[in-house]
Amino acid sequence: MSHDSPMTANIYLPALPTLVDEFHTTTEVINLTVTIYLVFQGASPLFWGPLSDNYGRRLMFTACLALLAVSCVGLALIPTSHYWPLFLLPFGVLLDVAAPHERGMFFGVGNVAPMLGPMIGPIIGGGLTDSLGWRPVSLFWFLCILSGIMAVIVFLFLPETLRMIVGNGSIAPPHMLKTPISVVGNSVKKTRQPADAKRQMHNPFRLFLQFDVLVLLLFNGIQFAVFYGVTASLSTIFEDHYPYLDDTTTGLCFLAIGGGMVCGTVTMGRIMDRDYRRVKEKMKRRAEEDGSVFDEGAFPFERARIRLVPYITVTYTASAVAYGWCIDKNVNLSAPLIFLFFVGMFSTSMMSSISTLLVDLLPGQGSSITACNNFVRCSLGAVMVSVIQLMFDAIGVGFTFLVLGSLCIVFGVPCFWVVMQMMPVYRRKRREHPL
């Protein structure tokens, strides 16, 4: 289920050169469709996230999948006219919660399914575009059927998981949030749900007022923007520099970056869990030596989550720059594919670390902070997609990625220093004055 969202975004990318020909327009104009998509992808979780934190995951999942299916029907029926850019693909966001000591691996394994979207989405999209054309019978009908099937599966089988509603699973949810299977099957009796206290809707925008959180969001957003600049432009520049590739083989090239993303998220999950245990054991030993009590609330999550981020930032930047120059100099296709793998691996490792840290900093507000993270990333990604082709035309592919890589380093190093220095202060303030 979690692969639907990234597949929706990435199934479209191999068809971009075909769309330029189909609509007799320019790459810059076609890229605006991706920009519009990213804008709404970033904004919609600010609405859906707080709702899911208050009214449950199951209801929001079903609503988002149904809305996606209906949107794909509209897109599939669009004629080749000037109105086609007005239709958008909305979807929701879900973040499950795990204990801090297992959260790194949880995020790693949980992110494998979303990483499959960038791997298999472009392959499906390229194959459908080559065989059936970009229009109704291909991309959007496929997405409509897929999201419709997932909506039915969620409605029938997915139980409510929001702890505020079901606790640890021992509390029965309200009747409207039960699955039809559990109602018909009259499953094991559970504790009745206590009377609801008045639910307070969280305002995600207030999280932007936390300086350390804002710095992390901007840092993560810039890395994502560069990453999306790579993926969104891949089909166009590969067609220009390797003209023997068709839509299907271009889609296969996305396997390189998708495979790197899977490796990166799983590996970084294990590393974060190991670092968490190491830091916790060190703090416990120090507390025993001082004769004090170990304080879980003062745990320095930044040391357990982003210790490797400076090194990953450098390797990620080097991989992106090397990829750009390989394309610019028309070297053998294997070279840019190798660097695409490393771009996927290091970008996902870095973004997973920061995303996990953000959730650790604001317990109980997982969907809200994820919505803010998504908003910043997609907003900056939208800006990147809208200007990337202009940069290619002005200074070339190699210098474009050199500029973008320099931006990652120039902004990333100060951000890391600020976070490591200031986060203990802001963590203490949030403990004294909870949000």
Automatic annotation (TrEMBL):
Keywords: Membrane, Transmembrane, Transmembrane helix, Transport. It comes from the Eukaryota. It is found in: Membrane. The keyword Ubl conjugation does not apply. Residues 1-423 form the Major facilitator superfamily (MFS) profile domain. One of its GO terms (cellular component) is plasma membrane. Its main location: membrane. GO terms for molecular function: transmembrane transporter activity. The chain crosses the membrane at residues 29-47, 59-77, 83-99, 106-127, 139-158, 207-229, 249-272, 308-325, 337-362, 374-392, 398-420. It is a multi-pass membrane protein. The keyword Repeat does not apply. InterPro entries: MFS, MFS_dom, MFS_trans_sf. This is MFS general substrate transporter.
